[in-house]
Amino acid sequence: MRTLMKRFLSFLLAGGMLLSFSGCGTSGKQDGNLADNEKQEKLVINLFGSMEKSKPDLKNVARSAFDQTVAMAEERLGLTVEYRTYTAENYQEKTYDDVSLDRVRNHMDDLYLLNPDTIQVLGSEGKLADLSGLSCAENLRDVVKTANTVDGKLVAIPQEVVAHGLFVNKDLFDQYKLKLPNTPEEFMECCRVFKENGIETPIGANRWWLENFVLAQAYAKLYNGDDTETQIAALNNGTAKYSDYMRPGFEYLKELIDKGYIDAKTAYTYEAIEGEGPDFMAGKTPIVMAYWTAANAETAYGKPDFNLQVIGFPSELGQMPVISITGYAVSAEAEHLEEALEVLDVVLSDEALRLYSETNQVISPSKNVEVDCIDALKPLNDRVNEGVYVLGSNASMKVEQWGNTCLIVRELLGGASVDDCMAMFDELQEESLKE
User: Fold this and answer.
1) DSSP string, 253-271
2) Distance of alpha carbon 347 from its chain centroid, rounded?
3) Which residues lie below 8 Å from residue 244, measured CB to CB, with a gap of 6+?
4) For the chain, N or C: smaller number of CB within 10 Å?
């Protein structure tokens, strides 16, 4: 299971970055002796990530926005940021996470872009610098601090907050006089009506994102109550069980499958967007799930021929966005530790985040940066701005959530019982208590 989880989390980062950073790239090395000499005179900060610097004329706003924030740091600090890039061909069977762990543990670079589980592991090992003293950290949303704090230290900060939600064809809801659902019961009723009116499979699903249904129900009260830290501490010391939180969501998902609202067989094999996307865009499937950027990308769900609305997942507290957070981190043993921290402070400043967020139309990690979003995303955006959400990844939890929940949901799709799935969570928790 751990191997599968690593591969999944590599998909989370590398796959997500591909949607944002797709296109050709170069190492950013300039031609000509004068340019090389000038670079050699400057301090070089090495950044390990999943992308290279974009070509100057590359028409890719996401990549160019990131490069502009890096250029901002280079100009202000009088240094150069070199990109060291992960490619599957170079590392063969090693996942992005495997390579990241190895490079950080051997302090091979200064800056890193890391997945949630890697942030958790390296943070607990003391391999990542504490970023809480940076100026940019003062402006972070609470959700970012919560997700990326390990043993009291803020060890990673992202350039965007990734919110997952339900993408719905509002025209089909209107056709059958259905209101957009808030609770699990209302959502189940919508599926019943669609099924009885000839829509064979109301929910288009893939093998990656069904865990959002579970997470929204499992942790709605935990993250939106007054005792979040106390509940997480109880899970970490074993006085509370993850399986008790997860069971209602798994039972709900099993009911959706048993009633034919989700096709478990196809969901088990479908890749995200590629599998269920065509039927949704053709108006045949009323409901799919995806993340914020997919609503802006024409290669995903951007510009459909119907009224698209993106809402939170059903929970007892209403529509619930599920948030996953990666982050940029600095090696605690970086060769150029202070300078790397300075680079990150510029790249993650409100000025740089505003440029990045406005260009890419994403949710900023800074509470001071608000970006206008398309109408379809406003329901999801409103909930996030209200502070209503569930964390799908949280480095302060000893049992990694996002990848493990995804893989156990896949066991459910493959025929495992809810009790079997809960036993898997219990086993993971027992392993964590031994560490």
Assistant:
1) HHHHHHTTSB-HHHHHHPP
2) 19
3) none
4) C
- In tens, the pLDDT along 366-402 reads 999 988 899 999 999 999 989 899 999 998 899 999 8
DSSP reduced 3-state for 330: strand
Residue 424 structure tokens:
């898997």
> Is the C-alpha dihedral spanning 115, 116, 122, 128 positive or negative?
positive
Q: Do 204 and 288 touch, CB atoms closer than 8 A?
A: yes
Which pLDDT score is estimated for 172? 98
pLDDT at 361: 87
> pLDDT by residue (tens digit) across 268-279?
999 888 889 999
Asked if 164 and 290 touch (Cβ cutoff 8 Å), the reply is yes
What is the model's pLDDT at position 61?
A: 47
pLDDT at 38 over 70: no
202: tokens are 């109301």
Instruction: At 294, give phi and psi (nearest 5°).
Output: -65, -25
**Whole-number Å distance between alpha carbons of 167 and 280:** 9
Cα–Cα distance for residue pair 224/318, rounded to 1 Å: 11
Phi, psi of 126 (to 5 degrees): 75, 20
Q: What is the largest CA-CA distance in the chain?
A: 71
Q: What is the pLDDT of residue 136?
A: 97
What string of DSSP letters covers 3-51?
HHHHHHHHIIIIIHHHHHH-S-EE--PPPSHHHHHHHHHSEEEEEEES-
Give the dihedral of Cα atoms 91, 95, 97, 102; nearest 10 deg: -40
Give the type of residue at 126. Answer: G
Among residues 65, 68, 53, which one has the least CA distance to residue 23?
53
User: Are the CB atoms for 354 and 362 separated by under 8 Å?
Assistant: no
Phi, psi dihedrals of residue 308, rounded to the nearest 5°? -85, 135
Distance CA 357, CA 371 (A): 7
DSSP state of 337: H
Give the tokens for residue 103. Answer: 């490079």
Rg of the Cα trace of the chain?
22
Is the pLDDT assigned to residue 232 strictly greater than 90? Answer: yes
Burial 334-357 (b: 16+ CB within 10 A, else e): bebeebbbbbbbbbbbbebbbbbb
pLDDT at position 28 is 38
Token pair for 220: 């709605």
Provide the whole-model pTM.
Answer: 0.82
Has residue 4 got a pLDDT over 80? no
Reported as a pLDDT band with limits 50, 70 and 90, residue 18 is very low
